Amino acid sequence: MSSQKLSRMECSKEVRRVLNQNRVDLTHCQYVVSGRDIRMTGWLYKTDGSDFSGQQIESLVADFQRRLSGFTVCGDMENWNFSSEHISKVGRHEEEEEDEVVAEKDESQERYKVS
């Protein structure tokens, strides 16, 4: 994008364009453009439901910096934290299941049976 001052709507449109080009599932990811900051929250997954790799996140950040020069990018996602300085994988997908421990009280022996 040119170095002219962009309106907030134009910046949001560029952010959406970058996210779509990188196949980000926007049903789980929210973004806000405020001043010269791009903030992302939610879950970061591809449109096919697969996860991103660290290298793909680097590419996403580079695309933001290329399209919106001078903007800072901050992703405080449930499964990724990233900016232009760091990328770290965290959390799990909201639909992934945890191994559950079910405890039932065994009335006859006054203790809990774990299955």
Q: Your description of this structure?
A:
By secondary structure, this protein is α+β, with helices and mostly antiparallel strands. It has one domain (8-93). It has 2 helices and 7 strands. The strands form 2 sheets. A 5-stranded mixed beta sheet has the order 1-2-3-4-5. Helix 1 (8-21) packs antiparallel against helix 2 (54-67). The protein starts with 7 loop residues before the first helix and ends with a strand.
Shape descriptor: globular
Number of strands: 7
- Provide the spatial order of strands within the biggest beta sheet: 1-2-3-4-5
Low-confidence stretches: 93-106, 109-115
Domain module tally: 1
Mean pLDDT: 82
| Amino-to-carboxy terminus distance | 58 Å
Q: Evaluate the radius of gyration.
A: 20 Å
The major beta sheet can be summarized as:
5 strands, mixed
Per DSSP, the total helix count is 2
Helix fraction by DSSP (H/I, runs of at least 4): 10-25%
Give the SSE string: HEEHEEEEE
| Strand content range | 25-35%
Pairing-aware structural class of the strands and helices?
A: alpha+beta
